[in-house]
Design a protein that fits this description.
Blueprint (H helix, E strand, L loop, with lengths): L2 E5 L17 E7 L5 H15 L6 H21 L6 E7 L3 E8 L19 H8 L2 E9 L2 E10 L5
Parallel strand pairs: 1-5
Antiparallel strand pairs: 2-3, 3-4, 4-6, 5-6
Helix pairs in contact: 1-2, 2-3
Length: 157
């Protein structure tokens, strides 16, 4: 797995609607590019990981999903698009992928914020909480890039 920033070497397909080999549990949800989507993404992530019995990852996955969805909404709105932000969760039982697709062709940028600057810490948090993260370009209707983060259960190799 790659550690961001930059295109990842993750084993993910270029389409967000395709099954991921080796990741049998998949959940997808689309949101309008509105700030109100963030708490919806948080709740969806919490409920899905509980259903998958990945209780130890729930809090971390919620934070990562919220950061990635917030970034995707910001990027989508910055280009004036109304295309949906796509959240996908995948798991193999010990690892979980959080993938978020958006319409902006611009790669994610990790910013080292100065002092008490508001914002800019999202990808730093994702990097700190995940075992790996990255992004890849895709050509799905309304989605031009996907940012992903891998989370591992404690003790998983």
């Amino acid at each position: 797995m790659s550690r961001g920033p930059g295109p990842g070497t993750c084993c993910l397909p270029s389409s967000t609607d395709t099954a991921i080999p080796g990741w049998p549990l998949i959940s997808r949800l689309e949101f309008g590019p509105y700030v109100s989507a963030v708490p919806c993404a948080r709740l969806h992530t919490r409920l899905v990981l509980r259903e998958w019995q990945q209780i130890s990852l729930v809090d971390t996955a919620e934070l990562v999903a919220c950061e990635l969805v917030t970034n995707a909404i910001t990027a989508t709105r910055a280009i004036g698009s109304v295309c949906p932000v796509r959240l996908r969760l995948a798991s193999d039982g010990s690892r979980t992928l959080v993938l978020v697709g958006d319409a902006s062709p611009d790669p994610p940028q990790r910013i080292d914020p100065a002092g008490d600057t508001e914002g800019g810490r999202g990808l730093l948090l994702v990097e700190a909480l995940s075992s790996g993260w990255g992004w890849y370009a895709t050509r799905q209707s309304g989605t031009t890039k996907v940012v992903w983060a891998e989370l591992r259960e404690s003790g998983a190799a």
